């Protein structure tokens, strides 16, 4: 297959084909509903990850432990791209009581906001049926740190080993990349899953301060309600509605700190 188009095609693109000289030729690229990309620091341009996504599954587990600001980074970027996020907690079969307590306290933050959370063990085939219902009829992408079990979860869903998996390092408790490029797998006629590499720089280098704020949907609920229109939403901001809601227990202090950590990166 070859393409007559200029520019980069990506997984999930919808195209028109023509059969010519015993090969298919891509002739038309349809408009994308959305696009997930990351910076390519070597070529100084964006690297497209996937297009036309209905929802994204942010996968976490206890080992490697969640990098908490990564979760909020993913969620903010997905909302900014108009992609529905869900959260998957993998490896529930191997959690210690301390692991379970920590993960539950973290997930309580997101449950309170209204995010759908699915608890699974890809290795033991626990919770997969419920997850399949959430994926059915959609084009979904799996996101998360290396080592959380994205490829293992996909293998379990497909019922066969079609992607490589690697163990988490015992010394560093970090995963090693097994997926080097995004790949689309067709579950049925209406259901696709895209497996993606770990994306540390995911989706936030190009957004504005206002777009980041809107990506924190629990913050967005109070948009425009601060005493001052140019409120910086900092701990000492006078009349800040966000700070007021943190003190009232309606917004997570962790999310607030993650917001400012990400904000500091995008305004450099």
UniProtKB/TrEMBL annotation:
Keywords: Cytoplasm, GTP-binding, Hydrolase, Metal-binding, Nucleotide-binding, Ribosome biogenesis, RNA-binding, rRNA-binding, Zinc. It comes from the Bacteria. Signal peptide: none annotated. GO terms for molecular function: GTP binding; GTPase activity; metal ion binding; rRNA binding. It is found in: Cytoplasm. GO terms for biological process: ribosomal small subunit biogenesis. Zn(2+) binds at residues 226, 231, 233, 240. Its EC number is 3.6.1.-. Residues 33-202 form the CP-type G domain. GTP binds at residues 90-93. Its cofactor is Zn(2+). Binds 1 zinc ion per subunit. GO terms for cellular component: cytoplasm. Residues 51-200 form the EngC GTPase domain. PANTHER family: SMALL RIBOSOMAL SUBUNIT BIOGENESIS GTPASE RSGA, SMALL RIBOSOMAL SUBUNIT BIOGENESIS GTPASE RSGA 1, MITOCHONDRIAL-RELATED. Belongs to the TRAFAC class YlqF/YawG GTPase family. RsgA subfamily. One of several proteins that assist in the late maturation steps of the functional core of the 30S ribosomal subunit. Helps release RbfA from mature subunits. May play a role in the assembly of ribosomal proteins into the subunit. Circularly permuted GTPase that catalyzes slow GTP hydrolysis, GTPase activity is stimulated by the 30S ribosomal subunit. Monomer. Associates with 30S ribosomal subunit, binds 16S rRNA. This is Small ribosomal subunit biogenesis GTPase RsgA. It comes from Francisella adeliensis.
């Amino acid at each position: 297959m070859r393409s007559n188009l200029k520019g980069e095609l990506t997984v999930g693109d919808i195209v028109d084909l023509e059969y010519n000289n015993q090969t298919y030729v891509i002739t038309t690229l349809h408009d994308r509903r959305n696009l997930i990309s990351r910076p390519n620091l070597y070529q100084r341009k964006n690297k497209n990850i996937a297009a036309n996504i209905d929802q994204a599954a942010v996968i976490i587990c206890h080992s490697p432990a969640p990098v908490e600001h990564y979760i909020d980074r993913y969620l903010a970027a997905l909302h900014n791209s108009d992609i529905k996020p869900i959260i998957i907690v993998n490896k529930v079969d191997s959690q210690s009581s301390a692991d379970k307590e920590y993960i539950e306290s973290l997930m309580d933050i997101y449950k309170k906001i209204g995010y759908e959370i699915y608890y699974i063990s890809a290795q033991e085939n626990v919770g997969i049926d419920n997850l399949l219902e959430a994926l059915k009829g959609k084009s979904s992408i799996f996101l998360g740190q290396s080592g959380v079990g994205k490829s293992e979860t996909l293998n379990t869903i497909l019922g066969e080993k079609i992607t490589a998996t690697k163990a988490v390092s015992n010394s560093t408790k970090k995963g090693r990349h097994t997926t080097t490029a995004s790949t689309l797998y067709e579950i049925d006629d209406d259901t696709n899953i895209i497996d993606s590499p770990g994306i540390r720089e995911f989706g936030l280098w190009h957004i504005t301060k206002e777009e980041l704020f809107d990506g924190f949907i629990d913050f967005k609920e109070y948009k425009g309600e601060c005493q001052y229109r140019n409120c910086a939403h900092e701990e000492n901001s006078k009349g800040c509605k966000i700070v007021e809601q943190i003190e009232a227990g309606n917004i997570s202090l962790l999310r607030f700190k993650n917001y400012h950590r990400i904000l500091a990166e995008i305004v450099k």
